[in-house]
Amino acid sequence: MVKSIRASIGLGLLAMAGFAQAQSTATCPALPADSGLTWETKMAGETQFCRALRADGSEAFGLYIATRTAFKPTRANRAEEVNIDGRSTYWYRSELAAQPDVQARETVINLRDGRVAYLWIQAHSSQELSSAMAQTGSLRFGNGAQLSSK
Fold first, then answer.
1. Is pLDDT above 70 for 112?
2. φ, ψ dihedrals at 132, nearest 5°
3. Nearest to residue 84, comparing CAs of 102, 59, 114, 111?
4. Which residues contact 102 (CB under 8 A, 6 or more apart)?
5. What does the alpha-carbon distance between residue 111 and residue 116 come to, in Å, rounded to a whole number?
């Protein structure tokens, strides 16, 4: 089977690689209060990148908020049906060529202000995947997810 890296995940991960440690939540959605997660965040132009980190520094999931995304959902890759911030959507299976044992998911939701939030999960176990899905289902995009108009 030919493995491919989704262009949108690859772009997001490349942007994430240069993150300086920062935990500002000024433009990332609110995390569940009891999750134990913190945000690592960075602005790149008008795109806000956010990584939800566990206490040990590993990534639970990531997202970016932008005016558009390169991600194009393919019905054949549909996996789990979920609600994120009250919006019904699907997680889509994807593969990471260099990490065949990782369970990768991605989705996009349209925000009320016309932008999109692209989310991804890269889990090393079914338990990690389930936990990250529950946590993303508790995200709230509101005043905390507004980008600067500069």
1. yes
2. -65, -40
3. 111
4. 96, 122, 123, 124
5. 5
Largest Cα–Cα distance in the chain?
Answer: 46
Give dist(CA 28, CA 115) in Å, integer.
13
Q: Report the distance separating Cα 107 and Cα 115, nearest Å.
A: 14
Count of all residues that appear for the chain in the document: 150
56 token code pair: 């040990």
Would you call 28 helix, strand, or coil by DSSP? coil
Asked if 85 and 140 count as a contact pair (C-beta separation under 8 A), the reply is yes
pLDDT in tens, 39-97: 999 999 989 999 999 999 999 999 999 999 999 999 999 999 999 988 899 999 998 88
| Residue showing tokens 């990490």 | 99
